[in-house]
Amino acid sequence: MRPIIIAANWKMNTTPADAGELARTIAARTHEASVERVICPPFVCLATVGEALAGTGVAVGAQDVHHEAAGAYTGDISAAMLAGLATWVIVGHSERRRDHAETDARVSAKLGRAIEAGLRPILCIGEQLADRDRGADAAIAVVDGQLRGAVGPHDPAALVGAGLVIAYEPVWAIGTGRNARGSDAAAMADAIRGGLRDLGWDVAADGLPILYGGSVTAANIGEFLAEPSIDGALVGGASLKPDEMAGIVARAALTANARRAETPVG
Ligand code: PEP
Questions:
Q1: What CA–CA distance (Å, rounded) separates 24 from 52?
Q2: Shortest CA distance to 140 belongs to which of 121, 168, 105, 164?
Q3: Contacts of 151 (CB under 8 A, 6+ apart)
Q4: DSSP assignment string, 115-184
Q5: Which residues are catalytic?
């Protein structure tokens, strides 16, 4: 059975002065043993948030990692630098693809660094509005290309061992208040698992958690979790609001418990 995961992407919000308090509040209000919770604050808040979350069961993730192990890359953060600060890492977020010209090849290299460092990667892939406007097949073709570009060069066993999670995030739904339909997200999740099978993942594709991301709130999370192929959410704007996170994780716990009850024992 795949886990239910709710990951918070705080983006470029919070400071070391206020991040600990927010993390503590969210942890206390989302205490659901059946849901894996992850908070990804800015790099400079990782230590503070890690201290605040110690013993809460909420994991800490970074929002990015550099594609090289070390070197002359002013201002960048390597996988080795994250040791002791984060156990998860987001790679390929569309805001990094947009603002830092990250290509699929670069995202793939970042995945490699995450694997080497024992960081659990959340790989973000998703189409632009123009792709979606050309129809579902066009959107699937774009996402499939991103999947092959990032995942294709890696040994499936290494990615499975690293605990890879994929977040399907249609770019037009991120931060816009306009979320995808649950059925479209589910169709994309099925296509992603199909793509992984083509890449040699075989049955491991069925075990890969796929999250939806894009304007998720406590009010709409149910539409995504009602889809058996969706295993949680990557939450941006709403993840800064404890009330929203409490609602999202409470709804996720209902799904986790229901799926557990449906899973045959033995
Ligand atoms: C994100 O940052 O990955 C995201 C999905 O943002 P939002 O929830 O604000 O759309």
A1: 6
A2: 168
A3: 108, 111, 123, 159, 164, 196, 199
A4: HHHT-EEEEEE---HHHHHT-HHHHHHHHHHHHHHHHTTS-HHHHHHHT-EEEE--GGGTTSS-PPPHHH
A5: 93, 169
Q: What are phi and psi of 35, to 5 degrees?
A: -115, 130
CA–CA distance, 174 with 178 (Å, rounded to integer): 8
Main-chain dihedrals φ then ψ at residue 150, nearest 5 degrees: -90, -45
In testing the pocket of ligand 1, which one of 235, 240, 244 has its CB within 8 Å of the most ligand atoms? 235
Ligand 1 atom 1, closest CA: 236
Going from the Cα of 70 to the center of ligand 1, the distance in angstroms, rounded, reads: 29
* Residues in the ligand 1 pocket, defined by CB under 6 Å: 9, 11, 169, 174-175, 213-216, 234-238
On the 0-12 / 13-18 / 19+ scale of CB atoms within 10 A, 68 is middle
- How do residues 115-141 score in pLDDT, each as one tens digit? 999 999 999 999 999 999 999 999 999
Q: Is 62 helix (H, G, I), strand (E, B) or coil?
A: strand
Q: Does pTM surpass 0.85?
A: yes
* The ligand 1 atom nearest the CA atom of 215: 10
Mutate to test the pocket of ligand 1, among 169, 176, 220 (most ligand atoms within 8 A of CB): 169
* Tens digit of each residue's pLDDT (9 = 90 or more) over 158-193: 999 999 999 999 999 998 988 899 999 999 999 999
Provide the token pair at 109: 């290299």
What's the pLDDT band for 97 if we cut at 50, 70, 90?
A: very high
